[in-house]
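Support request from a user on the community tier.

User writes: "When I paste my structure tokens into the form, the page sometimes reloads and wipes my input. The last time it worked, I copied everything first. Here is what I submitted, just in case something in the input itself triggers the reload:"
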């Protein structure tokens, strides 16, 4: 069995890769584009954008804190749980890599179509309402888990294998700060005049590479989890 310590280099690297996901980018870009059309003040755009980002951060952090004891409790019942999670993480990585070569074909880790329609309806009401922007962030964080959650689940499982303590709580907070940092960068660039179309063009151009990066990290984390489990 290899060492189970989860160090900052592994955590930060995983968080950076997890943060460059096309799902979270796409929703924020859509929200900012709508705000640009319906809002004549940058202050409101900044407030709503930051509210959305804070909501994503808090929701992901809360999800992590809720899942940690569940994974730990189930893992105490049977070590096969960790092996099963590791296998699922590797399969998720293979699916992500598939999208580098055949994006969107067959099965992909993405927001469900029904939830995508609901997001569009929420976007129509986000302007002028901080409460709605916060609710949108919470909703997005939950529905995009099929797209972004695999890396997070792997990190949470590694934390339980290492033995959860307050140091790992700090690491979890840092992970989620890194996860939302690209959203902050996008918001600031948008405020400075960068058009939504440029962001969307960049996202579409590099989405395959983003998927490839996430896939490779997932496979590496899954293999490491199997080594620890055995």
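"...and here is what came back when it finally went through:"
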């Amino acid at each position: 069995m290899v060492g189970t310590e989860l160090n900052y280099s592994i955590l930060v690297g995983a968080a950076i890769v997890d943060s460059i996901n096309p799902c979270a980018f796409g929703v924020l870009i859509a929200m900012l584009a709508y705000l640009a059309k319906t809002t004549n003040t940058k202050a409101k755009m900044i407030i709503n954008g930051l509210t959305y980002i804070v909501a994503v951060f808090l929701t992901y952090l809360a999800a992590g804190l809720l899942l940690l004891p569940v994974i730990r409790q189930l893992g105490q019942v049977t070590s096969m749980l960790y092996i099963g999670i590791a296998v699922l993480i590797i399969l998720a990585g293979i699916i992500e890599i598939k999208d580098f070569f055949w994006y969107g074909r067959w099965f992909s880790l993405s927001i469900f179509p029904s939830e995508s329609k609901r997001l569009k309806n929420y976007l129509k009401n986000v302007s002028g309402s901080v409460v709605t922007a916060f609710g949108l962030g919470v909703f997005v964080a939950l529905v995009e888990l099929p797209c972004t959650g695999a890396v997070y689940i792997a990190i949470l499982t590694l934390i339980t294998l290492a033995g959860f303590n307050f140091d790992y709580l700090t690491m979890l907070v840092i992970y989620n700060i890194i996860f939302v940092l690209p959203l902050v960068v996008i918001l600031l660039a948008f405020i400075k005049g960068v058009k939504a179309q440029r962001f969307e063009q960049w996202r579409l151009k590099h989405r395959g590479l983003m998927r490839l990066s996430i896939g490779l990290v997932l496979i590496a984390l899954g293999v490491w989890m199997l080594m620890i489990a055995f």
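Agent notes: The reload is a front-end session timeout and is unrelated to the input. The chain is about 85% helix and 0% strand. The first helix runs from residue 8 to 19. Escalated to web team.
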